[in-house]
Amino acid sequence: MGIRTLVAMLVIALVVIGALATQESYQVFMPGLLQGAVLTIEIAVLGSLLAIVMGVLAALARMYGPTPLRWLATVYVEIFRGTSALVQLFWLFFVLPQFGVTINAFVVAVLALGLNVGAYGSECVRGAILSVARGQWEACTALNMSRPQMLRRIILPQAFVAMIPPWGNLFIELLKSTALVSLITLSDLAFKAQQMNQNTFKTIPIFTLVLLMYLAMSLVVTIGMRLLERRASLGLARGKAA
Amino acid sequence: MIWDWGFALEILPVLARAAVISIEATLIGFALAASLGLVLAVVRIAVPWTSWTISVLVELIRSTPLLIQIFFLYFVFPKFGVVLDAFTAGVLAIGIHYAAYCSEVYRAGFDNIHRGQWEASIALNLSSWTTFRDIIIPQAIPPIVPALGNYLVALFKETPLLSAIAVMELMQTAKIIGSETFRYTEPITLVGLFFLAMSLVSAALIRSLEGLLNRRTTR
Questions:
Q1: What is the pLDDT of residues B170-202, one digit of tens each?
Q2: Which domain, by its residues, includes B133?
Q3: Fewer CB atoms < 10 Å away: N or C end of chain A?
Q4: What CATH number is given to the structural domain containing B133?
Q5: Torsion of CA B113, B114, B115, B118, to 10 degrees
Q6: ipTM entry
Q7: Which residue from A minimizes the CA distance to B67?
Q8: In chain A, positions 7-26, which contact chain B (CB-CB < 8 Å)?
Q9: Distance (Å) from the alpha carbon of A117 to chain B's nearest alpha carbon
Q10: Cα–Cα distance, A61 to A68 (Å, whole number)
Q11: What is the DSSP letter of B124?
């Protein structure tokens, strides 16, 4: 979908939220839901940062690390990609305390989602690094660059552009996964929705607002990533000519 | 004692029974996703004026959390007089959510068919139904089987969400065992291991299927 359509959808979503918020039957839910939305955004942003760090580290460890590190990274990626996010969340929340490690729910949420998405992200990073043309690597070798120099100056800047679209998808996935943290007692948007639903039984207004809010947040991420991609690929001869 | 083998063995049969529910939900959900996704993708091409509506719909479904969609079906539909039991509502939500993803996969498959095939079908005066059934779909499906397989695995890993509306699948059972015995280590770890094993096995299966299909098509 074109960036204009996405912006139009975002505007429509925001206008509808605004219009609903002025109505009496919806108004009462707004403060609570917005409070929840703030927590959702906090978890999504911190989780994304952790995911980026883990994704890059795991990819580099898997590709260039010494053997034990490579194994460790592989195990990490397989475990976090192989089990579901909710199981990981519950494991960190319910099982770790039994080993004497108690972490508060917010940190568990950020850790679980960040590690989960980071595992998927490491594959994106790996794919993007491998997609850099072989001539670039050979030229680096010919210029007698060291491996870190090669990566930092030549390979990663080019791989970065190829990484943006898949990371955009992952950020959306992460944002949507934040709804899971409502199940470990954090009062995010999904939790507030359920709580209000149980108290008031005003199901339709609550869930309509919540869906629109998630939609608006996802659209912001999608649009942001599109803009970033456009900016990053300036001057690069890639893709279809505009 | 942190890990009790006796307890783990004791709860294994209970979890195994719950795993059947998880697998049932996966299979029904995926059947729904694969067929509804195909319908969406075909209608989008065959009936041009629906294209915009369907792409907005797909975008809407893909950019809101599955958990909220499950709640929506489970709590909102009864307000319109449609009462669904938890399992049906959950599986329906999962199926529709993944149908949106699958329709994009099918679309990629259709886009990969050489334009000459479409033109030849028009030249032969085939109806659009026959074109899809006999010309396009048989060519478009094999290359996208691995992508669909990935979504099957992803869908399987989303089934623990059904525990949020109290479907007695694996996660819910593990949670109940945990709250009854105050031992969460064994049930939740076993559930994790079960998912890990299933994912690794199905990833290997998809990879070999991919190899098989490649061999057939590149000959």
A1: 999 998 998 888 888 889 999 999 999 998 898
A2: 5-218
A3: C
A4: 1.10.3720.10
A5: -60
A6: 0.84
A7: A179
A8: 9
A9: 13
A10: 9
A11: T
